[in-house]
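Researcher: Hi, I'm a grad student and pretty new to this. My advisor asked me to get structures for two proteins we've been looking at. I'm not sure of the right format, so I'll just paste the first sequence and hope you can take it from there.
Model: That works fine. Here's the first sequence with its structure tokens right after it:
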Amino acid sequence: MEYHDGELSLLFTDDKHITELNHRFLKREGPTNVLAFPTRDNDHPGPETPMLGDIVISLDAAMRDAKRGGESLNRTIDRLLIHGLLHLLGYDHQRSEDEAQQMDEETERLLAMME
């Protein structure tokens, strides 16, 4: 999948709000570090639009992840943003181990480009 121009919305929030979104839209309990809501559904493509979707990042979770991972908060936020973007582009680490591996490799490749 290749995109030359695209838009996305980005929301930085806290654990309380991301928990509400996680429950409301994904029926999952508790906070998470990042959520991605694609505009397009690969199974039901709609009209062509430059809007890729929405990415929501919990700064509370990002701070915990940064501390646990021993990296800067900025680097962790970059990682979460890339993770969300890859979801908007159709990657899904929950479908299979191979896809999880591909997503991890693409995340590291894109992070390296940001240095």
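Researcher: Oh nice, that was easy. Here's the second one.
Model: And its structure:
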Amino acid sequence: MRAQNELEPFAHRCRVYYEDTDAGGVVYYVNYLKFMERARTERLRHLGFSQAQLATQDLLFVVHSSEARYLAPARLDDELRVTAHVCELNRASLRFIQQVWRERDRTLLCEGRFLIAAVRADTFKPRAIPPELRDAFQADCSGHQSNAGE
């Protein structure tokens, strides 16, 4: 799952709050998916698009499938860096490779792959990704690989 390249991928920084943890102060596993969802949303915003804007154009992105590997625990107050790299771009879908790193010691905590489908906001039927958004993602797809911690 780890691609190798010298370029730094897009990353979203966040902190672990009490609400993200279980009774032992460790991040509950499903919250890594939330962190990665936020990073994908911020990646979109970084490209100049917002979820709200796209919804008015009858476009939503939905998770079709996901895969995650948990490698080490994050804990209360850890600062995290969450990457969001497009590794595959299709007519009506894209695949992200994502990683969650602890900033303090540059430890890879979790990594995942997500297939994201473009659908119509009114019917949830697949639809083509608009050309301007495809172009922005294409630049991301060809410009970076996920190697954020090294």
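Researcher: Is there anything I should tell my advisor about the second?
Model: You could mention this: The first strand starts at residue 11 and ends at 15.
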